[in-house]
Design a protein that fits this description.
single chain, mainly alpha, 20 helices
Length: 507
């Protein structure tokens, strides 16, 4: 069968390149400025990446544009990062399988096609850096330098690169280490060799963290990443986040997906238990074998913890879809174990992996349409407001308007109601962009006197203005505009009515 044909390294790379381009096409087509993209495209010299310890992302974008400012070059950075990611997925496929086929390629495709990673890919500025971070994590596993010392050093440097691009991506490296360990047990490698790999990976991780700490981390000043305090409430905070993570993962499932997921879980679980028989055949002492058994039993819990990753231990309470980068390795683990069982029972059964793969692509293309629906609503809203500001004599002479609704959580999108109802994870992925409209949108319409009212630089001025009587000029179901002296406020209203357009036509 052609799907079982052994592929060359070049063919594996081209498969991942084409598949990856197809996967990200809906995001490129939507051309949606997601959350931070809105202000980054205006404040080109802002150093927040450096403040967050992510200086390599700043250098990468500056180097690609060949100008000191961080200009928006989307989708060029995404194209470049996808090429690197395709090479990374090809390398890990060749690392695990000496004779890769189409089906073995499907096993590692979730490294990119993680449903939650769609939130990361949506960022026009940050997204490519996050893809590069995942790629670096993969290469840290697969680098094949001849010298063991050089190999460890390269992996440590790559881990430091991961942290300097997007810290949470380190969970991909940890997760792949778990997959590698389980695979070594499956291959009945000697106990000492298996434990040596574990110790080496732990050393690489520690060395990489130290390199990062003494380099990029020294430039960080943002406190968003501060850890939970070690007090009586520490365990409660961690367990609450873990429970929240499980609840968010459940958003992925509809009746069809439950069937597919159940098959994957059963087949993967059977393989996992079946490979436990290999402990007796692995050469090594009793103590070493006992350690391997213990680590093997911890493999699944560690992978579960990799889903939220470091966010479990961070003081920040919110968990966005983009934080679940580690979920990609869970999918790889399930696909790998299922593929092995399918191959043993009957080769043709490996075709089943096409089903969850198509579901991931379906989610991506549906998400692209949701982004377009969101974008269309934003354009309409901004146009309504811009028209009022320009056409009304009471408004067109004012110096500045403060936009006061950035924090409203709504995602009220009537045209995307069906998609987000039947695929509730869509709303969660979009949750980081839940404002009806960002104030940085208005320069696209030629309006340059609307600023973010929640920006620190305007707080004292706004406090003073609020002490005066605000005269309403515009008041409609979407927003209100009032004036105070030569300034004004734009207040976006939170739509409480249903976004289900068909509801009013139901008997």
């Amino acid at each position: 069968m052609w799907a079982d044909r052994v592929l060359t390294k070049k063919e594996v790379f081209y498969f991942f390149l084409v598949a990856s381009m197809f996967y990200v096409f809906p995001i490129i087509h939507a051309d949606f400025r997601y959350i931070d993209d809105n202000w980054r495209s205006l404040l080109l010299d802002y150093d927040q990446w450096r403040d967050q310890g992510r200086m390599l992302l700043e250098y990468a974008l500056t180097g690609l544009s060949l100008v000191p400012a961080k200009v928006n070059m989307f989708p060029l950075p995404l194209f470049v990062s996808i090429g690197v990611m395709a090479a990374a997925m090809a390398s890990v496929t060749m690392y695990f399988f000496s004779g890769p086929s189409l089906f073995t390629c499907l096993v590692f495709l979730p490294l990119l096609c993680n449903p939650f990673f769609l939130g990361n890919l949506t960022y026009q500025y940050d997204g490519p850096g996050m893809v590069l971070a995942v790629s670096a994590a993969v290469f840290a596993i697969t680098n094949n330098a001849k010298s063991a010392a050089v190999r460890c050093l390269v992996s440590a440097i790559l881990i430091a690169v991961v942290l300097a691009l997007y810290q949470l991506t380190v969970s991909v490296f940890v997760g792949l280490c778990v997959v590698e360990f389980v695979w070594n047990v499956r291959n009945k490698r000697p106990v000492n060799d298996v434990l040596s790999v574990v110790v080496t990976r732990a050393g690489e991780l520690m060395a990489g963290c130290l390199i990062y700490f003494f380099s990029a981390f020294q430039l960080a000043s943002d406190e968003r990443g501060r850890l939970l305090p070690l007090n009586m409430g520490w365990w409660e905070g961690v367990s609450t986040k873990l429970l929240l993570t499980m609840n968010k993962v459940m958003l992925l499932f509809n009746p069809a997906l439950w069937v597919v997921a159940s098959i994957l879980l059963v087949t993967a679980g059977f393989s996992y238990l079946m490979w436990m028989r290999h402990f007796k055949e692995m050469k090594g002492g009793t103590l070493g074998r006992a350690v391997v058994v213990g680590l093997y039993l911890l493999a699944v819990p560690i992978l579960v913890l990799c889903v939220p990753g470091a966010m479990l231990f961070v003081a920040e309470k919110s968990l966005d879809a983009r934080n679940y980068i580690g979920f990609s390795v869970v999918l790889v683990f399930l696909f790998l174990l299922s593929y092995e069982l399918f191959s043993i029972v009957r080769k043709g059964m490996a075709w089943f992996l096409v089903v969850p793969t198509m579901m991931m692509f379906s989610l991506s293309y549906t998400y692209g349409q949701v982004l377009i629906a969101k974008k269309e609503l934003e354009v309409a809203m901004a146009t309504y407001i811009a028209y009022d500001l320009i056409s009304r004599s009471e408004l067109n002479t004012k110096r500045v308007f403060y936009y006061m609704s950035h924090g409203i959580s709504s995602n009220w999108i009537p045209s995307a109601h069906g998609a987000m109802t039947h695929m509730p994870v869509q709303r969660y992925i979009l949750s980081g962009s839940n404002a009806m409209l960002f104030p940085e949108f208005f320069p696209r319409l030629g309006v340059t006197n609307v600023v973010n009212g929640y920006f620190k630089g305007f707080q004292s001025e706004i406090t003073a203005l609020k002490k005066e009587v605000c005269e309403p000029v515009v008041d409609n179901p979407f927003y209100s505009i009032c004036v105070v002296g030569d300034s004004g406020f734009i207040a976006i209203k939170n739509r409480a009515d249903s976004e289900d357009y068909t509801e009013r036509f139901k008997p």
